[in-house]
Amino acid sequence: MAAFHPGNGTIERLGRMLGEAERIVAFTGAGISTESGIPDFRSPGGIWTRMEPITFQKFMASEEARLEDWQRRFTMNEVYGEAEPNIAHRALAHLVAEGHAQGIVTQNIDGLHARAGVPADKLVELHGNATYAHCLSCRQRFELEEMRAAITREGSSPRCACGGFVKSAIVSFGEAMPEAEMLRAYRLAEECDLMLVLGSSLLVEPAASVPRVAKRAGARLVILNREATPLHGLADLALEGEIGAMLAQIFPHLADQEH
Ligand code: APR
Fold first, then answer.
1. N or C: which end of the chain has fewer CB within 10 A?
2. What is the CATH number of the domain that holds 223?
3. Do 7 and 70 fall within a single domain?
4. Position in ligand 1 atom list of the atom nearest CA 229
5. CB 6 near ligand 1, within 6 Å
């Protein structure tokens, strides 16, 4: 289907498709959090336009890369701490709470879906979670503030008692995807009747395969994004524009909760 620009009755169509669906699954990317003040990755001014990703291999090979990775985590966690869920997070939490959505599969690590009230058993964090750290060998959990203090004290990147490197619990480029989370995501995709993609460039695999699995399993595919994506050709409805403005027309009662 061609992409539609909102305004020619397509918001009504979106509302109708959401109303007709019985088992919605949402798939979200960084574009759902930009209206909360968190930069995305590939838009002009996005994170990858300002710095190179630190790959998992580089993290393992270089103390300098590990210390840089930790600094980035501490800086971004301050940004996350100042951010609030926006209408898009609230709308999805509302769909989950009323049993209209079976779950949310997110690539985001900012924790805003959870803060909007989505319970852990309805949330699949494909790229991990930036709010804590773990040992890469034994998976013991560590708190970020504890790691920041250790780095300040030792001047070196933290190691676990078992000898493993400690790293933020996010999935870096080149790092193995969390198998259990991928399986949960594929199961949700296979069982849904509408896959609602919000704010992702759909350029990163295997995450971007989740909406494709849903479409192939017979679900309708709806994409809300500022720009076209590689899956627009598969979409039953694709709206290009600001996610907040589009969802405010569908969920007006959620729009006026801006702080
Ligand atoms: N409304 C609509 N679309 C938006 C908005 C908005 N307010 N803000 C940003 N977007 C769109 C951008 O146009 C872009 O297409 O959201 C998309 C965000 O794409 P990316 O920056 O590539 O983020 P994402 O798709 O989540 O990246 C996937 O890549 O770097 C890795 O692990 C990282 O999880 C991330 C993954």
1. C
2. 3.40.50.1220
3. no
4. 15
5. no
List the structure tokens of 41.
Answer: 């990755």
Q: Based on the domain organization, do 150 and 250 belong to the same domain?
A: no
| Residue pair 210/231 in contact by the 8 Å Cβ criterion | no
Contact 30, 243 (CB under 8 A): no
- Residues 78, 108: one domain? no
pLDDT tens digits for range 38-69: 999 999 999 999 999 999 999 999 999 999 99
Element (H, E) at 87: helix 87-97
Q: Tell me which of 170, 198, 222 is where a domain ends.
A: 170
* DSSP secondary structure string for all residues of 53-80: ---HHHHHH-HHHHHHHHHHHHHHHHHH
Q: Which residue puts its alpha carbon closest to atom 23 of ligand 1?
A: 30
Q: Identify the three-state secondary structure at position 100.
A: coil
**Counting Cβ atoms within 10 Å, is residue 214 exposed (0-12), middle (13-18) or buried (19+)?**
buried
- 226 and 151 within one domain: no
Active-site residue flag, 127? yes
Give, for ligand 1, the residue of 32, 35, 43, 182 to mutate: max count of ligand atoms closer than 8 Å to Cβ.
43
Atom of ligand 1 nearest to the CA of 40: 21
Structural domain containing residue 232: 1-37+85-127+177-259
Q: Whole-prediction pTM value?
A: 0.95
pLDDT of residue 1: 43
CATH of the domain at 53: 3.30.1600.10
Summarised one tens digit per residue, pLDDT across range 180-197 is 999 999 999 999 999 999
Same domain, 204 and 231: yes
In Å, what is the CA distance from 119 to each residue of 93, 180, 251? 9, 17, 21
